[in-house]
Structure to design on (313 residues):
């Protein structure tokens, strides 16, 4: 499978993603500059973490105008799998490819810690390989990760099975304390209508090999690889 | 011309910054303050133009970039 990893000025996790898919999972990978208009025949697009264009006004606000985003939107509309991690998630919401918005953490602090995740939907190319009931431990690193959407949107997301991940405690229980940033309904990741676009705040790219002491993040990448080049639900 | 754009969180959106400032005011003894909302003020300098054209332009900028309609409301006024 060929991964295209979008690089914006200010991205800083593109090499983590590249390393995981290329060196750990032995797939093809290439970087795509934000000014490119083609995806170099990528089968899966990743928008990595970082601070695209500096995030000065709002996270992702400028990145949605990068030329490549039009191509990414087209690719997504055709059912191509797109994964937005952290800042990539923020960009996907700003670009309207995913619902809702990410705002300042409830505590106002930048968070850099391991959190636990419950997979709420395995009906997507990035989550289909995650064993039912398995609680994932994945790190977060963000200042603006509090998921917000209006009540109507939240209800719709829940009804349509589009909440991909929720923050939980190590046993998989949803508690107030296990929600690190104040996200509504403890939402850590959401899917688009078709299920082929996933955005999440935690970083699976930072925990995908044994030498790092945690391989939970691997499951997301392996899911999409296992699903073939155009794995949609 | 100067246009002052005010961007505020919509009602119901968590505003931890406003909350923290409220806490600070309370600590200083201003206990009668019941709510603080934090937002952004952006001042744009533009060449002189007609009112209708200006309003159209600023509205476009607000909707395209300066605010996110999912979480924020905006308003603007000609400052000078």
């Amino acid at each position: 499978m060929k991964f295209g990893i979008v690089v914006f000025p200010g991205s800083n996790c593109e090499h983590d993603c590249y390393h995981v898919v290329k060196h750990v999972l032995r797939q093809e990978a290439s970087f795509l500059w934000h000014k490119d208009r083609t995806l170099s025949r990528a089968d899966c697009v990743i928008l990595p973490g970082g601070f695209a264009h500096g995030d000065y006004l709002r996270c992702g606000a400028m990145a949605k105008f990068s030329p490549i985003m039009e191509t990414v939107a087209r690719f997504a509309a055709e059912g191509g799998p797109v994964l937005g991690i952290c800042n990539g998630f923020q960009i996907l919401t700003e670009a309207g490819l995913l619902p809702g918005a990410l705002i300042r953490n409830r505590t106002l602090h930048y968070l850099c810690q391991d959190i636990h995740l419950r997979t709420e939907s395995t009906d997507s190319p990035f989550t289909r390989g995650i064993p039912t009931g398995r609680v994932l431990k994945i790190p977060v690193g963000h200042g603006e990760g509090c998921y917000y959407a209006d009540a109507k949107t939240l209800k719709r997301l829940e009804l349509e099975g589009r909440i991909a991940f929720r923050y939980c405690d190590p046993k998989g229980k949803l508690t107030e304390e296990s929600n690190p940033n104040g996200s509504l309904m403890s939402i850590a990741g959401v899917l688009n209508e078709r299920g082929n676009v996933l955005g999440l705040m935690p970083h699976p790219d930072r925990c995908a090999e044994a030498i790092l002491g945690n391989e939970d993040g691997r499951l997301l990448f392996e899911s999409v690889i296992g699903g073939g080049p155009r794995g949609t639900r | 011309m100067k246009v002052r754009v005010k961007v505020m969180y919509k009602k119901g959106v968590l505003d931890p910054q406003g909350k923290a400032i409220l806490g600070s005011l309370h600590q200083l003894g201003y206990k009668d303050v019941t709510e603080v909302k934090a937002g952004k003020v952006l001042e744009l300098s533009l060449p002189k133009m007609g009112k209708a054209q200006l309003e159209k332009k600023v509205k476009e900028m607000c909707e395209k970039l300066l605010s996110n309609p999912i979480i924020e409301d905006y308003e603007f006024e000609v400052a000078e």
User: Anything to note?
Assistant: The two ends of chain B are 6 Å apart (CA to CA). Chain B touches chain A at residues 9, 12-14, 16-17, 20, 65-66, 68, 70-71 (CB under 8 Å).
